Amino acid sequence: MKIAILGGTGPQGQGLALRFASAGVPVVLGSRDAQRAAEIAAELNAQLALPESLIEGQDNLGAVAAANEIVMLAVPYSAHDATLRSIKPLLGGKILVDLVVPLMEGDPKRVAMPVEGSATEAAQALLGEEIPVVGALHNVSAATLKHLEKAINCDILVCGNDLEAKNKVIELIKQLDVQAYNAGPAESARCIEAITPILIRLNISKAVPFTHAGIRIWAPGS
Amino acid sequence: MKIAILGGTGPQGQGLALRFASAGVPVVLGSRDAQRAAEIAAELNAQLALPESLIEGQDNLGAVAAANEIVMLAVPYSAHDATLRSIKPLLGGKILVDLVVPLMEGDPKRVAMPVEGSATEAAQALLGEEIPVVGALHNVSAATLKHLEKAINCDILVCGNDLEAKNKVIELIKQLDVQAYNAGPAESARCIEAITPILIRLNISKAVPFTHAGIRIWAPGS
């Protein structure tokens, strides 16, 4: 199983590549710039120093083509729709995992949701029902991902309208030693994506003693 | 400081009354039926067996009039707007704390948000800017509240457009020995209210080993 991470040269993409490769999952970073993707991949492989280099870099289309099944979209929101349109012809038989949070331009403490309700719903509308879209990994900070010596400090809420696709993504994410929960249909992304700016607000606030907050599902006895 | 809890005879209202009274905060339960409010108050006082009875019951208008400053609205969503309209003339100088989650009729695993975006925003629009509305305590289950021998298992996300009012509510909630965080403006209620049906979904799911899930803000080292 080889996964693609588009926007893979950004902080979150790099952090996820490190985590997945550490868990033994081969990753193709996708970028508009294939050269830059290859350079970042080489840096990340050097950082990991695994017996085998599990991270490679390609342009976005090459990365999608190289992925067996799962394509993660971790681009800035401003590139969300255009990237999806460009890769749509290559997504047949694959699952699009949407990590994008529609942060408000100029104010990352707020969302500016698309008319569809959320980025995940917008992606599903754009790709059509044939290509399952799963929303996940919105609330885990890049800094948290990059500190490989520490466990990831949050749970992952996963949503989407296709249960089989959602379960595959949940199983993949669990390889990162985190809990991942089925949080319902794509519509739940309206909530899940909007958790990120609340966490950003807490991280910025001087009232709170932490800088890379995540959320956890908690229950009596857990 | 005496607080009112409207819808106080429901499970969440009763649970909150027990917790606040245990923390030494006097509570007036409000209900459409003053007689029932008084009966429930007597039952809760008997359960607490404190030296002084801190819980009383009145009709909704009487409860609002009796509250010094903070009026909590914990009615079912179907009664949200009508209750607010009936108490509006008595809310001058007070803070309305909105706990209501617009769960979808017939499917508590989904929200059906009002056109304003959330119940909190709808309340603020209905009451006008003179009366500050603070959204809080949406995600704590009645069962969790009623088990007084156990600490509350979640953090409280608090939102609203009036910072002073929000800080007063945060201080009040912290008396329950829980963390309460400023999660931003009233708009954040679109996210916070929608967390509840996700928790309900997890509680119902057989895939998850708990029945009264809450959320926590978590960070490295916490």
Automatic annotation (TrEMBL), chains A, B:
Gene3D superfamilies: NAD(P)-binding Rossmann-like Domain (3.40.50.720)
Protein name stated in the entry: NADPH-dependent F420 reductase
The Pyrroline-5-carboxylate reductase catalytic N-terminal domain, residue ranges: 2-101
Stored InterPro entries: NAD(P)-bd_dom_sf, NpdG, P5C_Rdtase_cat_N, STEAP_metalloreductase
Top-rank lineage group of the source organism: Bacteria
NCBIfam families xref list: npdG (TIGR01915)
UniProt KW keywords: Oxidoreductase
Signal peptide: none
